[in-house]
Structures are given as structure tokens and as C-alpha cells.
UniProtKB/TrEMBL annotation:
Gene: Haghl
Name of the protein this chain belongs to: HAGHL protein
GO molecular function annotation: hydroxyacylglutathione hydrolase activity; metal ion binding
Family annotation (SUPFAM superfamilies): Metallo-hydrolase/oxidoreductase (SSF56281)
Source taxonomy: Eukaryota, Metazoa, Chordata, Craniata, Vertebrata
SMART domains (UniProt xref): Lactamase_B
Length: 253
């Protein structure tokens, strides 16, 4: 959430050249900064699947493959959180490193994205047929650090699941030390992420459903209502404060 300036600092430190941006979806906390970067880097290519993405230059489609030097990218269309959500699966041929999935707000560590513009059917397809079939060592780089909260919900769903307990304890410690919990691996997610475990008996028992889509629908609705923090300020307003966007108004006092 540091915006373009933080990215420029990383690029400078790494000695990298910014040639392209892969945007998962149009929400401001994922695409904010595209226009500014496009102005700073003439000819910058901005890839995405939704016309609402700022500074978009290249519209991509499901299964399309892109190449950046040695890096290969497969575009995976996962509509639901938004109708134009695209995930990006990346690997390098002949590399010993595991491939990576940039999953935006579709698949999180221990959770999945809210169904803002889509259905449980769509999310079920996304998780079982599109993302769930990737190599199990794939590293999952999601768009937010909401791991602790996701796993607290996972523990409510499966109180006996030892993997959930272990991962939650680990995530809390990482949080306390201000360290990231991302990435995880796809193989791990299947062990503790309830949204990938819709065919497991304890998850079905929790939801009172057996049809996988209905289990998923019920899980998401329960997650949406899970211990909502009381009277918290609007998160967008808080971020606006963090980013100094209210500066012009506050100065007028």
C-alpha cells in the first residue's frame, strides 16, 4: 500500500527496469498508482482483464501467455471478487525455483476474496479448476496480509484441525514481529484453508451443507459476518490518512 514512491525505491535498490505492470483487478488498493507510473515511464505496458483498470494498455484473456526475459506468465481468469479479476502464474523454464501465483483478491493465505461481483459457482470454479490444479509447490502471493483473521475463522470452521492451529500460531508470531506471512504454498493451503476444503467432512458439518458450491456459499457468508470489529473507522478513510490524501483539507484549519 506504499504507492508508486515505494515501488520506485525498490526498483532503484534492485537495479531493475520497470517495463510492465500486471494488474489483478481494478480496485484502488491494487491499481492505484498505475497512471502515475505510466506518466513517469513513457511506453510502460499495463496488463489486465478489466477496462476499469487505470492506464490499461494491454487487455489479457484467460490462458494467454506473456514473456518477460526468462520469466513466463500465464494469465488465469478468476471472475467473482470482481467480474474482471485475473491471476498471474509465473515460472522460469529450467529454474529450480518453485513457480509463483499472484492471486490478487481471489485466493488468500487461509481464505478467499469476497464475492463482490460474482457468485459462489464462479469462486468454486476458480478455486477447484483454475487455481487448485496448479503445481502443489506453487508459491501463493496474495494481495493482502489478512492471514491471522482468516485462520481464526478457519479454526472456528475446523476446531480440531492441527494444521490450522500450527499455521495460526506461526502467523500470529510473524505479525508480532512485523514480518510477512505471504507467500504460502498451494499444497499447504489445501491443509488449512476452508475454502479449498469444501469436500472435507468437518467443513461440511460446520456449514450444514454437502454440495461443494453450497458449502462455499455458506462459508463465505459466515466469513463475512465473522466477528466484525466494532465501530472501526472506514478502512479507506484510514488509508487516505496514511497516504496523506487529506492533507489539502487539514491544512485549511
Amino acid at each position: 500500500a506504499g504507492g508508486p514512491l515505494q515501488l520506485l525505491e525498490i526498483i532503484r535498490k534492485e537495479g531493475a527496469v520497470l517495463r510492465a505492470i500486471l494488474t489483478t483487478h481494478h480496485h484502488w488498493d491494487h491499481a492505484r498508482g498505475n497512471e502515475e507510473l505510466a506518466q513517469l515511464f513513457p511506453g510502460l505496458r499495463v496488463f489486465g482483464a478489466d477496462e476499469r483498470i487505470g492506464a490499461l494498455t494491454h487487455k489479457v484473456t484467460h490462458g494467454q501467455e506473456l514473456t518477460f526475459g526468462a520469466i513466463r506468465v500465464r494469465c488465469l481468469f478468476t471472475p467473482c471478487h470482481t467480474s474482471g479479476h485475473m491471476c498471474y502464474f509465473m515460472w522460469e523454464d529450467d529454474s529450480p525455483d518453485a513457480p509463483a501465483l499472484f492471486s490478487g483478491d481471489t485466493l488468500f493465505v487461509g481464505g478467499c476474496g469476497q464475492f463482490f461481483e460474482g457468485t459462489a459457482e464462479q469462486m468454486h470454479t476458480n478455486l477447484t479448476q483454475i487455481l487448485g490444479t496448479l503445481p502443489e509447490d506453487t508459491k501463493i502471493f496474495c494481495g493482502h496480509e489478512c492471514t491471522v483473521r482468516n485462520l481464526k475463522f478457519a479454526l472456528k470452521v475446523e476446531p480440531e484441525n492441527e494444521m490450522v492451529k500450527e499455521k495460526l500460531a506461526w502467523a500470529k508470531q510473524r505479525d508480532d514481529e512485523d514480518l510477512p506471512t505471504v507467500p504460502s504454498t498451494l499444497q499447504e493451503e489445501f491443509l488449512y484453508n476452508p475454502f479449498l476444503r469444501v469436500t472435507e467432512e468437518p467443513v461440511q458439518r460446520f456449514t450444514g451443507r454437502t454440495d461443494p458450491v453450497e458449502v462455499l456459499r455458506t462459508l463465505r457468508s459466515q466469513r463475512d459476518n465473522f466477528k466484525k470489529p466494532k465501530e472501526r473507522p472506514n478502512p479507506q478513510a484510514m488509508l487516505a490518512f496514511d497516504w496523506g490524501l487529506f492533507g489539502p483539507f487539514l491544512d485549511k484549519k
